[in-house]
Amino acid sequence: MSKKDQLNDKIVENQANLDIQNKNYANELAVKNNLEADKARVIKSRNKLEEIMATFAPIMQRANNTENGSALKTNGKGEGNYADRIADAYDAKIAEISSRYSFCSYNRDAMNLAIHELDRRISKAESNMDFASKMQAVYQGVLSETQRQLDVEED
């Protein structure tokens, strides 16, 4: 096999490798874009959830400050059976809101973990893109040098 044939084979091989790296880069870019879109949706949902939790917060604060049905009864805010019914209804509503608040809090925590995982995966995609970019530069350099050698060989 002549030197010229070897150089042509080397060009074909390195062009194929460059094409692979171009595809790798494009694939990782698509992955990164999809992950960033997913992250944006999760952040939007988490922010909406935090708005809902902010609505519950004053009620939760009152419940934590013992402004509950039992406190209403002992403070004389009602009399007899009426006071008992109001206190029980108040306590039940606070318990329901507390349960919903806890559920929201759990979901917010899960969303924060999802955002953290998406950040990790985005970082991995960026690292893969960086590697593909460096490999593209290597193969482009090898192609240029091989083409230069081929030009010299033809002269």
Summarize the structure.
With 155 residues, this protein is mostly helical. The protein has 3 helices and no strands. It is 92% helix and 0% strand.
What does this structure look like?
The protein has helices at residues 3-64, 69-74, 80-154. The chain contains 3 helices and no strands. The model has no long low-confidence stretch (mean pLDDT 86). The chain is an all-alpha fold and 155 residues long. The chain folds into 2 domains: 1-63; 106-154. Helices cover 92% and strands 0% of the residues.
Q: Low-confidence parts, pLDDT < 50 over ≥5 residues?
A: none
Helix fraction, binned, reads over 70%
**Element pattern in H and E:** HHH
Mean pLDDT: 86
Rounded radius of gyration (Å): 33 Å
Q: Report the principal-axis shape.
A: rod-shaped
- Describe the sheet with the most strands: none
Instruction: State the helix count.
Output: 3
- Give the helix/strand class: mainly alpha
% residues in beta strands: under 5%
Coiled coil: 4-52, 108-135
Protein name: DUF5082 domain-containing protein
Organism: Listeria booriae
Keywords: Coiled coil
